[in-house]
Design brief:
The protein is an alpha+beta fold and 129 residues long. It folds into 2 domains: 33 residues, no CATH class; 73 residues, Double Stranded RNA Binding Domain, CATH 3.30.160. The protein has 1 helix and 5 strands; from the N terminus they run βββββα. It comes from Streptomyces aurantiogriseus. This is DUF1876 domain-containing protein.
């Protein structure tokens, strides 16, 4: 049986072709041609830049981090994180910095989500006339 190049073969592997001989025509359909849009619409997107600064301080075996998100509208959201070195571990300050910073960023993410949730509750929904 010769294949129609414009048809989509729904049978799968060639091994099943003989098994479905005579029934194959009911499992083939023409491949639809993509439709072009009737008109072209230009959509412009606004580019924004938000900045996160991480401030790290060490006090003995404790490392504290503060992650501050500043939006373009000068709003800020702050997250806090702390790491404490176990006294039996070797003193490797980078590990404390990484843990405290990651915890501060995690806290920042939760707080930013809370801000968005509050905005949805108070600002979203239909426009009141």
């Amino acid at each position: 049986m010769e294949r129609d190049p414009s048809a989509l073969d729904l049978l799968g592997e060639e091994a099943h072709a003989e098994e479905w001989a005579g029934k194959a025509s009911c499992l083939r359909r023409p491949v639809p041609k993509p439709r072009l849009p009737l008109r072209t619409e230009v959509i412009t997107m606004e580019s924004k830049q938000w900045t996160v600064q991480i401030f790290i301080t060490e006090d003995g075996d404790d490392t504290h981090a503060r992650a501050v998100l500043t939006t373009g509208e000068t709003s800020t959201v702050t997250g806090q994180g702390t790491a404490r070195r176990n006294p039996v571990d070797r003193p490797i300050p980078e590990i404390g910095d990484e843990l405290a910073a990651s915890r501060a960023l995690d806290d920042l993410a939760v707080r930013l989500h809370d801000v968005a949730s509050d905005d949805i509750v108070h600002l979203a929904g239909p426009v009141e006339a």
